[in-house]
Amino acid sequence: MINPTSPTHRPEGGGRRASVRRGVPDGCSDRASRSSRWADSRVYSCGVIDYLHLSGLCFALLLSVSGISEAQETADITGAVVDQVGGVVVGATVSLTTGDGTPVQTGTTDSQGTFTFSDVPPGLYVVMVNLVGFTPFATSPFTIVTGSRPTALPSIVLTVENVSTSVIVRSIEAIAEEQIKTQEQQRLFGFIPNFYVSYLPDAAPLTSRQKLRLALRETFDWTAFVGASVAASMDQATNAHPGFGDGGSGYAKQWAAHFADDHTGDLLSHYVFASLFRQDPRYFYQGSGSKLSRLIHASTSAFMARSDTGTTMPNYAYLLGSFSAAGLSNTYYPHPARGVDLILTNVVIGLAGRAAVAVTQEFVGKRLTTNVPAAP
Length: 376
Prior knowledge:
It is a single chain. This protein has 376 residues and is an alpha+beta fold. The protein contains eight helices and 17 strands. A hairpin with a 3-residue loop joins β10 and β11. α3 (208-219) runs antiparallel to α5 (247-276).
């Protein structure tokens, strides 16, 4: 006979062991089981929450310690820049570099002459200061260590930069020599000499040697020979001076007379008398002012000239040179052409021609001349 209370007893119709506790009904047992599982789950959840709270606190503490550590590893660098008398230097460029010259930070001094470099990590540094007019300054290398307090540099004193000025002293003669070389390149239409026009109002005065050089340069320019040849041919063709004769001999005499007429006056006016009276033989281009003032300046240049000291004086050199050249012409022209009439004719023609040339130079000559120096 089977004992119903035996552990091996199974109720009929089921293979499942009855969940029957001694003295506990079956429904109560299920409720107790669920309550137990809920309690276990609550305990587990509380443990997880506590763990998360603890982890968060540890993480926050780590960040705080890291921030404190980072804050303790940088430092600020401050300083002031003054001049030699102690005045503040405003607007100076201040650069912070590492010991090997790598740029770190750059700034400028404020209205008090001070500067600040913030959050500088540990290392070897140099501060450099630059300002126009002052000698560049660089501090000795200094070290920022971990946990340093703000570093205040000693006052930086800038000294005035040494300015080296070189002055090239040239003589007036050397300056005039350069100007003559430029004038010797001036030609009307690119081929007619225009050596005796100065486009520099303050040109250096010429020495006697330079006056001779310029006169010879114009006298023996290739155009002088061409001009004498053309004039002699015209006179020969028109039989202007029968006393010179015909043929090659007559032409040679015509040629020599024209060459002498043109250039004995140049040598006498531009060199001999210009040196004797210390007078500048050039025409000085005005180029500004009213047309009337320019016309008066040009037309009177045959009678008024500039002295070697820059003052205005009578044009003794040209007047005496014209009369002397006309007088010399009496020695080589045929007898019928000689006399006072020849002298006066040559002088009048010379003066009128000089005034006409000067007016032409003043109003159109510059535009037609090559190699005109640029205005200073």
